[in-house]
TrEMBL record:
GO terms for molecular function: flavin adenine dinucleotide binding; L-pipecolate oxidase activity; proline dehydrogenase activity; sarcosine oxidase activity. Belongs to the MSOX/MTOX family. It comes from the Eukaryota. Coiled coil: none annotated. PANTHER family: PEROXISOMAL SARCOSINE OXIDASE. It comes from Rhodotorula toruloides. It holds the Pfam family DAO. Keywords: FAD, Flavoprotein, Oxidoreductase. Its cofactor is FAD. Residues 11-378 form the FAD dependent oxidoreductase domain. This is BY PROTMAP: gi|647400586|emb|CDR46191.1| RHTO0S12e01420g1_1 [Rhodosporidium toruloides].
Amino acid sequence: MTCPAPPATMLIVGGGEFGSTAALALAEGPYRGHGNLITVLERGAEPPAVDAASSDYNKIVRADYADPLYQSFAIEAIEQWRTPRWKKHFHECGVVVAAAETDPQAGYVVNSHRLNKEEDVGRLERAGGIKRFYSASIGTGEFSGDVAYKNKVGGWAASRDAVVEAINLARKLGVTFVSGEAESLIICPGPNGSDVKGVQTVDGREYRADFVIVACGSWTPKLLPELATNCLPTGQTVATVQLSKEEVEKHKDMPVSLFMDTGLCPNKDGIVKMAIHDRGWLAPSGTFPSLPRTTLSSGYERQQIPTVALDTLRRGMRRMHPELAEKEIVETRLCWYSDRESGDFLFDWHPTYPSLFVAAGGSGHAFKFLPLTGNWIVSALTRTLPPHLQRLWSFTTGDKSRLDKSRGEGPIVRRDLDTGVVREIRVPAAQTVKAKL
């Protein structure tokens, strides 16, 4: 099968993390000197769209995994975050990784600690030992019953700024970015069957190319309904508080707090983001088990997260930093993930359409790998990925025995945004637990 190369044209649908880094890696690699042959179609007026998962104040960049493969990737990514290209967007303040000792997730913390270098993480601590991870000027909870460690490696990255960096670098190499929301694929007959040759937008415009990459994140099932469950859109609840100038100074060197059920991450402007680290919420739509509802969705311009989620965020804040827990919430939103049960990414050619490639399945942990994702996508596109990654990130095979347990040890269940009813959505093939991220 032919690999994309000049003079073949390339259309990338989606300008978030996957789309922008793929465009940059193509323009610096197989399309070097021919960036003008690459077009990125993004639904927002200026990429990335304001409701994209990567269009955020910040994301945790951690080297902490219970899975050795992704832990090795995380360390490689952090090395790249420290390079001149990315370091201005990376703030290496350390990461406190914790869980209640009675929670099954404590096993994740222990296994993750074991995979890190001793000089980076020290020993596992409890209660008062955990309090010492934070400056005496920063109020914390008592951490009674918790087990934790602090990893000096890692911190947070200004996520929207980093994606804009990739976009600007790609533009300098000739890549064109256009605004428009893809509505459907353009499928044309060919000598060996049907093939995808572009997309039509909601306003009727057509964008055609020799090759198409779908990199739409949680919107992927809209173009590829066959991925409605295998790249399931799930809404993750997020809230923010604003620190005063005095509080910013006091908290400026605070490490990221990653408790296995919730997390807290401040940024340079004193905005502290709280998020729940769980399976998320579903928004059923027609025949789809879930599709994103964002600030750009009609009727959902003002994002209200479920009351039970807001209460949970407050409890998590009181557990970690009680003095911040009573501050006014200035913003809530749903951040939409493209979830695969295994937690493994989907970087592969479509099994039916020879000219269609899919980059999806971020599963809530892809952003930390931003310096690597473009090269991974291009390697999959050119069929030069190592065989074990080809299998793992495959459209049709993958590893059916893997199950992502980083957001909960039990069955993968989520709640319906409208009813609050707990639902279990599984891909058609049966799976058994063997590995966890």
